[in-house]
Amino acid sequence: MRASAADRGTLEAPQVRAMFDRIAGFYDVMNSVMTVGLHHRWRSRAADLAVVGPGSAVLDVATGTGDLAVELASRVGSSGTVTGSDFAEAMLERARAKAPELAFEWGNALELPYPADSYDAVTVGFGARNFSDLDQGLREMTRVVRPGGRVVILEMTTPAKPPLSTFFKVWFDRVVPVIGKLAGDPEAYAYLPDSVRRFPGPSELAERLCAAGLVEVRYIVTAGGIIALHVGEKPTPAGA
Question: DSSP per residue over 42-109, as a string?
């Protein structure tokens, strides 16, 4: 039997949008269950890598229910701005209810509706693997960040060595789909482990960030090899 797109960890943009609209109501709870609450700590580390402070302007792409945007807002203060962008309206509704003081706007990560050189930092947390065209998404994030600004990606990755590789297989192949079934959307949470496996490993993603136009690209693998954080800088034109 031929595997479905979800089984292979690949979905077209309309399918991704529909899936996240469906799971918006229990997305936050599932995140906490699947990561034992550690996802907030990982988002804090991503905000650290963005190196933003009071007065900074930040864009969080594929913001979902807005947790990373909220973390970034705590760094930029009342004099800064944080914009969360997503193309799943049900997710944006949750984000707006969570943080009504922030700007959450509809936007496609592959065609960001913002001028070039607009933000001091551009981030994405657990959303890059859902880009239907990863390289185009990376180019767009690079386009809208200012010269000298940073692009930060927080994403899950497949651990290579036991015991975490064994845990990953058991947890994401067996436990998470069961939890998803109990939550009422087994397809969405069967897609998750396959999408992580399909996504480029840390070194390949770093190369693709360089190809998108970033420099000083580096990454950190943490949580026993399950989480990768990447950061790169947009070069400043010579003589600027």
Answer: HHHHHHHHHT--TT-EEEEET-TTSHHHHHHHHHH-TTSEEEEEES-HHHHHHHHHH-TTSEEEE-BT
What pTM did the predictor assign?
0.88
For 148-182, the pLDDT digits (tens) are 999 999 999 887 777 767 777 777 777 777 777 76
- Domain spans of the chain, in order of start: 13-158+200-233
Query: Which long-range contacts (C-beta less than 8 Å, at least 24 apart) are formed by 235-238?
Result: 235/147, 236/147, 236/148, 237/147
Residue 70's nearest CA partner among 93, 30, 91, 101 is: 101
3-state helix, strand, coil in the chain (%, to 5): 50, 20, 30
3-state secondary structure of 215: strand
- In CATH, what is the architecture of 13-158+200-233? 3-Layer(aba) Sandwich (3.40)
Instruction: Render pLDDT for 175-228 as a digit per residue (tens, 0 to 9).
Output: 777 777 766 677 777 777 788 888 999 999 999 999 999 999 999 999 888 899
